[in-house]
Every structure is written in C-alpha cells, then in structure tokens.
Amino acid sequence: MKKLAEKLLECLSINLGLAPNALKDALGELHQDLLINHYPPCPNPSVAIGANKHTDLGGVTCLWQLDDVVGLQVLKDGEWYPVHPKPGAYIINVADMVEVASNGIYKSIQHRAVVNPAKRRVSIAAFYDLHPDAVVKPIPELVSEERPACPAVRFGDHAMKLAIETDKVGLKVVN
Where would one find coiled-coil regions in this protein (predicted)? Predict the structure, then answer.
C-alpha cells in the first residue's frame, strides 16, 4: 500500500507539471496508519452517524470498502453525494497536507460515513501521514502573483487543532 501511495504522489506531482518526487519531497517521510471501520446496522439512521464530516489530515488516504453497502459520502457545493463501492477498487482521498503543498490546486475533500438501516458496513483506511514536526509549505513553483502562497502548516499542530474541533472527527490512531 505504501508503494501505491508513493506512486499516487508521483502522478499528482507530474500532473502539476513538477518533477515526480516534488510532493513526496514537500511532505517528507510518510508513515502508514491503518483504521478498520465497522458500522453495524442502525434501524434509525437519522439519529446516528458513522463518522462526522471531516477531511483527512496527512498526505493521501487509500480506502477499501469491503462490501457493497453505500456509506461514504462526499460534500460538493453544499450537498452530500454517496460514493458507490466498486469491487476491488480503492477510493483515494487527497489529504490536507497535499492541499497545502499544492498551494490549493488539489483539494482535501470533506467526507463522512453514514450508517445503513439494514446492513453492516466495513472499510479499511490506510492513511499516509507525516511526522508531527513536519512543516509543509506550498511548493515554490506553484506560487505566483495570481496564486499567492497559503500559510505553512506544522502537521502536529494541524492534527491537534482538528482533533478538538467539534465538526471534525478526532481519530485516535495507533502507529
């Protein structure tokens, strides 16, 4: 999975017109955290949520949905859209630090998980996150007069801030 994440960062870099290693270099050493989500059936899904709206914090997230139950939703233009699982496919989320390194060209999308009234849902998320002391700033080639640099971000501070905000999920991740 780490090779997949590194290849994705390479492709994203090339798409930006940069050297293949540009995003990887901007993010520094990545480590993998795994989270297994089990959402049991909920007879009244209007009173429960699987995971509150949030963005992913680090580099990229590779999500594998183990069954055909729709639960992941993405926010676009103020509306929630379901993501329909495809057998054998991964869902890739660009995370917050890629948004910073790309100077906002790539967006870390808000998403959430909802429960199903009749079926359980299981997913495995592989997060590729940064060292807490890593400081990410926009790649210089992506800064211009038309697109001024967004502020640099220390990953550990960013993660701590989001963990305590009420509209974010504060994930407890074990390395």
Answer: none
Helix (H) or strand (E) holding 96: helix 96-101
Q: Report how far Cα 110 is from the mean position of its chain's Cα atoms.
A: 8
Q: How far apart are CA 63 and CA 122, in angstroms?
A: 11
Host domain of residue 138: 2-164
Q: Is residue 116 part of a domain?
A: yes
pTM (2 d.p.): 0.88
> pLDDT grade, residue 169 (50/70/90)?
very low
Q: What mean pLDDT is predicted for residues 119-144?
A: 96
Domain count, the chain: 1
Q: In what order do the strands lie in the sheet with 72-76?
A: 51-54, 111-113, 72-76, 79-82
CATH of the domain at 129: 2.60.120.330
Does 170 map to a domain?
A: no
